[in-house]
Amino acid sequence: MKKYEAIGVIETKYFAVAMEMLDQVSKTAAVEFLSSQNQLGGKLVSIIVGGSISDVSLAVETAKRVNEMKQDSPLKNAVMITNPHEEIMRFVVPEAKKTVKKQIKPRAKTTKKIEEKPLEEDNNHE
């Protein structure tokens, strides 16, 4: 798992606002999008980004600036966590993203033996 100096957690109302914030954050700071979570059918969205401390700090500030341009102030919280613990990173980027390769075993060829029955003679022919 990749190690980040810091991660930023941005929590906002509305999926569309979250995408706008993620777009602006990605354009202004050299951060990597790690994950997102939708709650309440997209009415509450959490975005998590990772990178250097200065880049994540810039990303959090950018999210706050985008919020200032909005009428109803949809940003609920924007925080930076420096030197995130490995357990936090497992929560942020679940192990489920790893691809599990299935071992495909060859199927044994089965052939059904059809029971041969003697044909019934038609006695109607004279």
Automatic annotation (TrEMBL):
Which portions of the chain have biased composition (kind: Basic and acidic residues)? 112-126
- Answer yes or no on keyword Nucleus: no
Feature: compositional bias, Basic residues? 99-111
Main location per UniProt?
Answer: other
Q: Which SMART domains match?
A: BMC (SM00877)
The superkingdom listed in its UniProt entry is Bacteria
Tell me where in or outside the cell this protein is found: Bacterial microcompartment
Q: Does the keyword Disulfide bond apply?
A: no
Q: Which UniProt keywords apply?
A: Bacterial microcompartment
Q: Name one Pfam family in it.
A: BMC
Q: Which PROSITE patterns match?
A: BMC_2 (PS51930)
> Residue ranges of the BMC domain?
6-93
Residue segments, region Disordered = 98-126
Q: Which GO terms describe its cellular component?
A: bacterial microcompartment
PANTHER family according to UniProt = BACTERIAL MICROCOMPARTMENT SHELL PROTEIN PDUJ, PROPANEDIOL UTILIZATION PROTEIN PDUA
Q: What is the similarity comment for this entry? A: Belongs to the bacterial microcompartments protein family.
Q: What is this protein called?
A: BMC domain-containing protein
Report the source organism.
Gracilibacillus oryzae
